[in-house]
Amino acid sequence: MARGKARSDAMDSVVERAKRLASEGAEEIVLTGVNLGDFGRGSGDDRRLGYSLAALVRRMQRDVQVDRLRLSSVEPNLFGDDLITALQESPRFVPHFHIPLQSGSDSVLRRMRRRYTTADYRRLLLRLARTFDGVCLGADVMVGFGGETELEFRECYDFLESLPLAYLHVFTYSERPGTVAAEWTPSVPVHERLERNHALTQWAMDRQMNYVSGFSGKVIPVLFEQDTYQAGQGELKMRGYTPNFIRVECAYDPLWVGASVPVHLGGLLCRESEVMLKGTVLG
Fold first, then answer.
1. pLDDT at 261 > cutoff 70
2. For residue 181, is pLDDT > 90?
3. Measured in Å, how far apart are the chain's first and last C-alpha atoms?
4. At residue 232, does pLDDT exceed 80?
5. Coil, strand, or helix at residue 233?
6. Is the pTM value of this prediction over 0.90?
7. Does residue 33 share a domain with residue 111?
8. Domain interval for residue 133
9. Percent of the chain whose predicted confidence (pLDDT) is above 90
10. Which residue stretches of 162-232 are H helix?
11. Element containing residue 69 per DSSP (H, E)
12. What are phi and psi of 150, to 5 degrees?
């Protein structure tokens, strides 16, 4: 109700905006939206012309001259065969996909009115892991949804263990008056919601460290961000991302700010909730 009717920009408009950003020096462009996988279904587009996210991926690969292209979050029920094929055909789209899960319990997913099952989700992630080398797969999970039992939470935890996820965003459910979910009983006590959040957050940290450390010793391009910061003895540092979404910290060098350069990836570096690798620029 808050978002209004679904709507999509015209494909030509998206491509022209991306081309303009590329001409202004952008090194990476991310396609994003409230429900990105539904691109082409809203009132701003005409599906009879064949508009879809897969078609847009192909147009971006063909017409937009930028080093990296990336998808933001895509719902699992909308991540179909044609989109996977389009991404395979478009090598400048990086191997990083964020696919919201919300719960690893089928009974909770039904109460959430999600349009997929845990079996659907697992099939998709396993296929993506087989298809794209070094792929980084991320998900969202909500804990404490209305009526979530301890058994359902355990089902979710065990399901996550079975997936090739690299990271996880964990959210704690909070009631919103007037929603159907707020009526589900019994509600999960707040302290139990927080305990479940903590358990999954710790799981996510361990999983991310395991994924990230697997790239230590490799040389991979890193796109550095504009900001710098002080670390340790006041030494200036800069951060950037590999194509597969690994965050890397290097000694600051103004020559490489905003640029993509080869970096030798070193040891694991954890600061609070951040998981990174140390890096040495080879450019």
1. yes
2. no
3. 50
4. no
5. coil
6. yes
7. no
8. 95-213
9. 80
10. 190-213
11. strand 68-71
12. -60, -35
